[in-house]
Specification:
The structure holds 2 protein chains of 2 kinds.
Chain A (H helix, E strand, L loop, with lengths): L1 H28 L13 H6 L8 H4 L2 H9 L15 E2 L6 E2 L12 H11 L6 H4 L11 H11 L7 E3 L2 E2 L9 H4 L2 H9 L1 H4 L12 H16 L7
Antiparallel strand pairs in A: 1-2, 3-4
Chain B lengths: L1 H19 L3 H15 L23 H5 L3 H10 L19 H15 L3
Classes of the chains: A mainly alpha, B mainly alpha.
Chain lengths: 229, 116
């Protein structure tokens, strides 16, 4: 009986937090982030969205990471959310025009908790998630790098450590901290189910190798390369 | 008779012009999917090239692009580099682009290289 009472109190408290969080989301975040969907249906529409869609945040992010990041945001995509808007020709290759990049606003710790609570209630549809899930297991970082880079060429667009790898996509050495493992499997399996115009291609990676890639991302995350920056 | 010939000529010219042009969507698609590696000007020196083991093709080079047929270009965009025995770094874009959009991109590539 005592535990039931505690459960009810905690549930009501969490619901109140989420309600407060949704107010903050609507007021401070909705101008840059889509909170109710659907995803952009054209490239032009995609480019008008200043930040990632959040209408499925509860199926994508790890709550613990999200709450910390909202208090102390750090750039994850070296060339911004849409690289096409933040690059310029350089002497040897195109370079990032850092003057066009703006930092993400930071939230107060109590607001970050409320917002995280609200975001975790926004779930993806069954169509987006698909049926693939992470089955667990582990892989060495060196073998994982072969699967990720040599066999599938993912490093072309993603940094696997600070300063090493492609710059147009988000860094992947923190991906497993940021994202739920099932989301990673689902997104790599069919990125367009989540975002039809994402620059992330569907490389039609065999299902067992997608499991290995997510295992690799988990191995990378354990190395805490972001903290050594 | 002469009038008919003129009409035919005009129709043929229109057909040639329409088959050689590309839509605004092709330019958007090129920016969204191709710039990151092939570069803002298409010269193969995109944002990502620094740590790439194989350099992306220079789309502005008639020499590099002239030897490729439209069918080859369509295939490599749709199926990826491995489909024509090239690099795995070139991904297959069939999940992102329709056949019509890929045909449109091929026309856009021909404009960049001024060849074919």
């Amino acid at each position: 009986m005592k535990y039931l009472f505690l459960f009810v109190v905690l549930t009501v408290a969490n619901a109140a937090l989420a309600d407060d969080g949704m107010v903050i989301l609507q007021k401070r975040c909705a101008s840059c982030h889509e909170l109710s969907g659907p995803a952009a249906q054209s490239v032009q529409e995609l480019w008008q969205r200043k930040g990632p869609d959040l209408f499925y945040a509860g199926s994508k992010y790890n709550a613990e990471w999200l709450e910390k990041w909202l208090v102390k945001p750090r750039r994850i995509r070296p060339a911004g959310h849409h690289p096409v808007q933040h690059i310029q020709p350089g002497k040897k290759r195109d370079i990032i025009d850092t003057t066009t990049l703006t930092p993400h606003p930071a939230l107060l710790p109590n607001n970050a908790e409320e917002v995280t609570e609200a975001l975790m209630k926004l779930k993806a549809s069954v169509e987006m998630m698909g049926t693939a899930v992470f089955k667990g297991g582990s892989i060495s970082a060196s073998f994982g790098e072969m699967v990720f880079d040599k066999f599938n060429g993912c490093m072309a667009c993603h940094e696997i450590e600070p300063g090493y790898g492609g710059l147009s996509g988000p860094e992947v050495y923190t991906a497993a901290k940021r994202y739920q493992a099932d989301y990673l499997v689902s997104f790599i399996t069919d990125p367009q189910a989540w975002n039809p115009k994402t620059p992330m291609p569907n490389k039609h990676v065999a299902a067992p190798n997608i499991q290995k890639i997510v295992q690799y991302l988990q191995a990378l995350a354990k190395e805490n390369r972001d903290e050594k920056k | 008779m002469r009038k008919n010939n003129l009409c035919l000529l005009l129709f043929a010219a229109l057909l040639m012009f329409s088959s050689a042009t590309w839509s605004d969507a092709a330019e958007d698609n090129y920016k969204n999917y191709c710039w990151q590696c092939h570069g803002m000007t298409g010269d193969g020196m995109g944002l990502n090239v620094q740590d790439m083991s194989v350099q992306p093709r220079d789309h502005t080079s008639a020499k590099a692009m002239g030897g490729r047929s439209d069918a080859d270009l369509f295939k490599v965009i749709k199926e990826g580099g491995l489909a024509i025995d090239k690099s795995v770094l070139m991904p297959p874009w069939r999940g992102s682009l329709s056949d019509d959009e890929i045909h449109d991109l091929v026309k856009y590539l021909r404009k960049l290289c001024q060849c074919g």
